[in-house]
Write a structure and sequence with these properties.
The protein has 202 residues and is α+β, with helices and mostly antiparallel strands. It is built from seven helices and six strands, in the order H-H-H-H-E-H-E-H-E-E-E-E-H.
C-alpha cells in the first residue's frame, strides 16, 4: 500500500515540477504528499523517473527535437567558453530535458571577469547574475551564476567554479550517482554519433 501511495506522490510531484508549480524536488514532494493526505515521500530519483515519463507522454516527438536543439546550443556556448573547461550538467546532459528545462553549464576559473567578457564577446546577452554560498567540507565557497537566453529562447545558467574545484567529485542530488556531466569533446562526439543518448543510472 505504501508503495502505491509513494508512486502517487511521485507522479503528483512530477506534475507540479513539469507545470512550473514547484521549482525544487524537495518542495514538490512535500506539497504533493500534503495534497494527497499521505506522509510517505518518494526519492528524488523516483520523481525524476515519473517526470521523464510524463514529459515523454505529453511531448512525444517534439521532445526528441528539443533535446537535440538544446544540446546543439549548449555546444555553441561551451565552444565560446572552451578556455574555462566547460561541463554540461543537468537535464540536457542527462537527456531528460523537456519544455521549460534550461541549459546548465559549469565553468572553472579564478577570473570571473574573463568569463563574463568571453560570454559578451560570443554575442550572448547576460540577463542577470547572482551569487550563492555553498559549504563543502566545512569550507564556505561563493559561486557566481550567470543567466543567459539563447536566440532559440532557452534559459541558460552558467556557474563559475574556482579552479581548485576542477577535480572535485560530487554526488547528484536527484539520481545519487557521480555528477560527471559532459565535457566539450565528449559532447561533440555525442552530437556526431548519438545526439539522444541518455545518462541515467539504472
Amino acid at each position: 500500500m505504501n508503495l502505491d501511495k509513494k508512486r502517487q506522490v511521485a507522479k503528483e510531484a512530477a506534475r507540479l515540477i513539469y507545470y512550473g508549480l514547484a521549482a525544487e524536488y524537495y518542495t514538490a514532494k512535500r506539497e504533493a504528499a500534503k495534497s494527497l493526505g499521505v506522509k510517505v515521500l518518494p526519492t528524488n530519483k523516483e520523481i525524476a523517473e515519473e517526470l521523464d515519463q510524463l514529459s515523454e507522454m505529453l511531448e512525444g516527438q517534439a521532445r526528441v527535437e528539443l533535446l537535440k536543439s538544446m544540446r546543439s546550443e549548449a555546444l555553441k556556448i561551451m565552444r565560446a567558453l572552451e578556455a574555462f573547461n566547460p561541463i554540461l550538467v543537468g537535464s540536457v546532459w542527462r537527456g531528460t530535458a523537456h519544455r521549460g528545462s534550461d541549459i546548465d553549464i559549469r565553468v572553472y576559473s579564478d577570473e570571473e571577469r574573463a568569463v563574463i567578457e568571453a560570454i559578451n564577446k560570443s554575442g550572448y546577452g547576460i540577463v542577470r547574475q547572482e551569487r550563492t554560498v555553498k559549504t563543502i567540507d566545512s569550507t564556505k565557497k561563493t559561486y557566481l551564476h550567470i543567466f543567459l537566453k539563447t536566440p532559440q529562447g532557452y534559459e541558460t545558467e552558467i556557474v563559475i567554479h574556482p579552479l581548485e574545484d576542477i577535480n572535485l567529485r560530487e554526488k547528484c542530488e536527484i539520481f545519487g550517482d557521480d555528477l560527471k556531466g559532459l565535457k566539450l569533446k565528449a559532447l561533440e562526439e555525442i552530437m556526431r554519433n548519438d545526439p539522444l543518448k541518455k545518462f541515467i543510472p539504472h
